[in-house]
Amino acid sequence: METRFTTPEDYPELVTWWKWFRFPAPLPETLPNNLKDGIMISHNGENVCAGFIYRTPSAFAWLEFIVSNPHIKDKSIRKESLELLINTISQVAKNLGFKVIFTSVKNENLINKYLDCGFTKESHSFEMVKML
Fold it and tell me: Residues near 32 by Cβ (< 8 Å), separated by ≥ 6?
């Protein structure tokens, strides 16, 4: 597995993944640091999954918009890649000095990946968004 930071050039591919999963693609300007604070996991030269870390001016970071390549059908590659992605983003956050990383997720499979990577499941809440 290969790990790298995302770039603005990754955005079109990520949009196709989000659309495939019927998730509204975030606008590029809403992704952190012009898409440079994301992590992409690849296997044998093919992009498998990506996610983003949002930095705050506190000890709290936010992990969001994890998405995977729907054309990768090998479950072991998908599982290993997602776990590597979550653990890599967590380590990057720790290296940057963050003490807590938060995420919001609905997909049961992704919830289980987070649990496998040491996250705890907190109370049930609702995501509230206001477009400005």
Answer: 38, 52, 53, 54, 55
Q: How far apart are CA 68 and CA 129, in angstroms?
A: 23
pLDDT range class, residue 130, cuts 50, 70, 90: low
Q: How far apart are CA 96 and CA 34, in angstroms?
A: 18
Q: Which residue has the tokens 């206001």?
A: 130
DSSP tag of 61: E
Tokens read off for 58: 């506190």
Of 117, 114, 118, give the one whose Cα is nearest residue 105.
114
Model confidence, pTM:
0.86
Copy the structure tokens of residue 11.
């955005």
The H-or-E segment that residue 47 falls in is strand 46-54
pLDDT in tens, 22-37: 988 999 999 999 999 9
Beta pairing partners, 53: 63
15 contact partners, CB below 8 Å, separation of at least 6: 25
Rg of the chain, C-alpha, whole Å: 14
